[in-house]
Amino acid sequence: MAKDEKLIYKLVEEINEAIYSMDSHFIKLHQNLISDELSPKQIILLDFINKNSQVTIGQIANYMNITSSAVGQLVSKLEEQHYVIRSINPENRREIFVCLDTSGIKYFDREEEIKQFIISRYYSKLELSEIVQLKEIVQKLNQIVLKEGIINEINDIHLKKGEI
């Protein structure tokens, strides 16, 4: 490994450790403030609905890469607890819409309160210019990751292992 590569590796390790430490703290904070007993799949489903207002079972299945039947089971459990509500699409009666119900709306209201708390408690201690710079760097890295794509990454890993 070249000298610059070693330095980059060390710096990225330090960045990853700092991010992991912050994420661990924020997760603990979140767990103490939200008592909902939701599985990771249920949270992903609720988040998808929240970001898109009203979605179909098929859209959820496609997004989560699971079967419509599996989505139906997840939705049924969430519907029992009033996190989501189903309705029939009046224009296509074979299509089911899913949107947030009362518990789901309350869940995201609490999420917003936690987000506001984290921003006011931690991010507000940074200069505005630092927050702008952080945002730009993270977005740039995200674009690089998205551009590369997962298939290229998997192929690269297999190449390094001598499997391809």
Which sheet architecture does the biggest sheet show? 3 strands, antiparallel
Radius of gyration: 21 Å
Order of helices and strands: HHEHHEEHHH
Helix content: over 70%
Give the topology, please.
Layout: H1 3-33, H2 40-52, E1 54-56, H3 57-64, H4 68-80, E2 84-88, E3 96-100, H5 102-121, H6 128-148, H7 150-161
Antiparallel strand pairs: 1-3, 2-3
Helix pairs in contact: 1-5, 3-4
Protein name: MarR family transcriptional regulator
Keywords: DNA-binding, Transcription, Transcription regulation
Domain HTH marR-type: 5-143
Mind explaining what this structure looks like?
The protein is mainly α and 164 residues long. It folds into three domains: 1-33; 37-125, Arc Repressor Mutant, subunit A (Orthogonal Bundle), CATH 1.10.10.10; 128-164. The chain contains seven helices and three strands, in the order H-H-E-H-H-E-E-H-H-H. The model has no long low-confidence stretch (mean pLDDT 90). It comes from Lysinibacillus xylanilyticus. Residues 5-143 form the HTH marR-type domain. Keywords: DNA-binding, Transcription, Transcription regulation. This is MarR family transcriptional regulator.
